[in-house]
Amino acid sequence: MIRVTRSAVIDAPIERIWAVLRDFNSHWAWHPAVGESSIENDEPPDQVGCVRNFFLKDGNHIREQLLALSDRDHISTYCILEATLPMKRYVATVQLKPVTDGNRTFWHWQSTFEAPRGREREFADLVGKGVYEGGFEGLRAYLRRGSPAPARAANAGAMQCQVSVATAFGGPEVLQLENRAAPAPGAGEVRIRQTAVGVNYIDVYVRKGQYRMIEPPAPIGMEAAGEVVDVGEGVAHLLPGDRVAYACPPPGAYASVRTLAADQVVVLPDDLSEETAAAVMLKGMTAEYLLHRTVRVRPGQAVLVHAAAGGVGLLLCQWAKALGAKVIGTVSSEDKARLARANGCDFPILTSNYRFATEVKNLTNGRGAEVIYDGLGREAAAENLEALAFTGHWICYGQASGPHDSLPDLGSKSGTLSRPVLFHYTADRAVLNEMAERVFAALRAGTIRVEIRHRYPLAAAAQAHRELEARRTTGSVLLLP
Fold it and tell me: Do the beta carbons of residue 415 and residue 388 sit within 8 Å?
């Protein structure tokens, strides 16, 4: 058995190179040895099992089959089914890894095969130099020309879709279902057929006009998952057929099809469902930055999580507990207390009137909470200040009861107050990818779990908002287009 390996460093980001290589029929565009090529039976060129049928420029004919493809690990494996070249049992693997500076890519290409006795050196050179080294140089030249990734042309026309629109600022009743058109993606954009949409409290703020992120009539929603329909010019990290998710402004996620900027969209790993992604992208990345960036929670710290049975609250409890924190939470019912306790909250406090400081102090021997995660806002301000430990960190990431009227007297506690916003952290694509990968890894490891307890059709967005505002929901809420 002959084994051939070659490696090279390509001066381009891994997403750009992978966008080309994951297309099993792309080599006709960049490999100097390859002539006419097609995928049999009109199958998608990234579908495992598809067969590419092509001729080399020297006249040889080859049929190869895609055996495996991993967007998470940037690996593809294929084999020769039939060839005019006397090579048997040919199996090859392409793998990419980012170079530490982030702007270059390490490409490893290897294969094993059998060749006629006495001609082993000839075929090892044919594959190693003609196919692999020639391919490295061919792709470098292709990228220098600024060529678009193959099979990326956007569909010409708009697609009809259903959209939940806020017809005015106000209560849930302003949400109405309309038929609209999702335009073809322009430069830097992607069009997604959405299968699951996340409902979050920020959507309530937008609908009411507390966050002036829309001018009615306009769709709302910040988070969804689905499948890429097509992409516009200059998009290198997405391909049609990719399963993807996002959590970003501007609002507009309450839709069956959506066109938006591609730089905030991430490809989902194979082991993550689209429903789970739509339930965890915004809430999971919120928990990630609150626990790992705004403040780094340390073992033994007393952490107070408000709305501990809500979507973000459950993730904060789970993750903070895994980090070794002593987790205290506020909830509004016995059922929510049981749910919070089952998800890492050591001490759920039952309260419906924003009174919790005394119990927090009792649970911490009078010290108070060293970190407070506050999504409540104005009505809980005085109690939060009272519950805060000296030199503690109060993080106000939401305002369910309204914005603060004035800044509290933090000098009385030598405390720190933060008012972070997720989208300021994710504005940098490299940071977005890092945060999303940490969330996916935490899901994979069982550190966090997603509770999808409420699913509504897209047409019932108003009802979903009523339930959310009435505090009748726990865990994550989804709309299904």
Answer: yes
